[in-house]
Amino acid sequence: MKWGKKSLMTLAAAALFVTAACSNNGGGAEPANNDGGAVKSNAILATLGEGNDNLKGKKIALIMQFNEGAFSAQYVAGVKEQVESLGGTLQVQAAGNNLADMASKLDAAVNGGFDGILTDHGTAEALEAGVKKAVEKGIPVVAFDANLQVPGVTVLQQSDEAMSKTLLEQMKADIGGKGNIVKVWVAGFAPMERRQISYKAFMDANPDIKEIAHFGTAEKPALDTQNQMEAILKQYPNKGDISAVWASWDEFAKGATRAIEQAGRTEIKVYGIDMSDEDLQMIQKENSPWVASIAVDPKDIGRVQARYLYQKLHGDETEAKVVLDAVLVKREALPKDKQINTTELGQYVEGWGKSEQGIADWMGRTDK
């Protein structure tokens, strides 16, 4: 959800690629199952091991570039449940896609008596000064999806190049290695730039797959994609004119899917990156053109990030970069007789929602 040398507004909005919205307090309703009851999460949570009572009651700040959409809501929920499982409290501050405001909120957190700081998106230019100030004051920092290179800071990122490559290879297999495709992508965000590397290499290696159109914007991405895709479908009105859409962010996949459905062109396959409950509902819809998405469980992203922060609070040495493991979710793997959400997805897709990354030897653990 979520740019480089464009206007500040575009930079900020583009960072939305990771999508998603959460409440300001980082809370969120537990999803319900098909019988109306609460779904029991299959999450693995770290807890404090014996002899670590000094880590109880830590105040953690999460400084976000944006907090809009389902992905971010689930991400924040993951941070919150992991921090609380480790005995801490979380305060969420979101900057509404304003990088200057994000830098200001980070500076306030550094001076606000917090024991640890997490950041979500943003740019190195916006965050570096505040992060360096935090490190100088002995406040540990763990960032997600920002190209920070500050000694002592751990940066989490999704395996964007590998994710993109895996998704493209799935698309290739599904369309028989040839056909016309539409690319939806926007420049400027670190994750997007990494995904583009794999896309270019794939297209260079597969000359029978032709890109006939490309577009993308971070301003109202799902709606804009829908509008632009509708126009492209009119340019290419015949079945077989377009084989697939490669959407480098799930907000793009939503818009492309809606346009294709409304035009009755569901022979066109859609492939997306990232996953939320809303995405999963669209993928499960009968005859949906959205057939596959690759993602890290957004709750697991939050959990893993919080674990690395607590490693730092414990005095552990942590890596400068942590790459999160992604999972390919295909429509064919999902149940046909009921609709599920991402909390239940791990029952059908191996590896989803059960990440143990970041759990140190001194931590306990629990399966919720």
From TrEMBL:
Q: Which Gene3D superfamilies match?
A: 3.40.50.2300
UniProt source species: Paenibacillus herberti
Q: What name does this protein carry?
A: LacI family transcriptional regulator
State the family named in the UniProt similarity comment for this chain: Belongs to the bacterial solute-binding protein 2 family.
Q: Looking at the keywords, is Cell membrane present?
A: no
Every copy of the Periplasmic binding protein domain together lies at 60-316
- Which chain regions cross the lipid bilayer? none
Location in the cell: Cell envelope
One Pfam family this sequence matches: Peripla_BP_4
Where is this protein primarily located?
other
Key word Signal present in the record? yes
An annotated Gene Ontology molecular function: carbohydrate binding
One of the record's GO cellular component terms: outer membrane-bounded periplasmic space
Q: Which UniProt keywords apply?
A: Signal
> So which residues are the signal peptide here?
1-20
